[in-house]
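User: Run a structure prediction on this.
Assistant: Running it now.
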Amino acid sequence: MEKVSIYIDGGNFYHLVLKKLGIREADFDFESFALFLANGRQLGERCKRYYIGTVREKEGDEKSREAMSLQNSLFTRLISTKWEVKTSKLRERREKLVIDRRVEGHEKMWKEGIRELNFIRQREKGIDVKIVTDLFIGAIDNKYDTAIIVSSDTDLVPAIDSLRHRLKKKVEYIGFSIPDKIDSENSTKPLLSMIPRTDLQRTLIESDLKPFIIPKLL
């Protein structure tokens, strides 16, 4: 029977899919989702991997404390169903947006004396490296025939090429078509560069994901 391993880029999946659908990570049944992705194929030992940046509690910040608690609950559930959880620190970086003529509504901002905006953005560091490392180790150790990748990160494309052409492994790309109800230009679409570089492609829509939402207890 064909062996598969599943690699989910948690941050990518959340921002491109779950957030747009209004679903918290803690309310999504990743175990049932994995069985759906495997589609009757064999899931071997240590074949389900989830990669995510860890949330840290900020002193006096109730929102960050709740986010960390929810994430820890998710980790506990994943580990109990034999997922490998790979984490990375979320780094805060100060960024600046210059208000020039390309910014919609720049005239009003200029009138108020606003010429730039400073903000803090959180970024995951090293997640793509960890995914690539595990993909190659799994291929070399013959842990899978097909790697199922749930990520639309273009940084993975060179590794995918090597897996397919040098190590003779199949790669299945899971993409999504999720409309953004607020900004249609921000809707999630399958990554076009992944489609010709993978052996199998599946595009999931909202109705495909609804069965994996965990009902909330009253």
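The chain has a mean pLDDT of 88.
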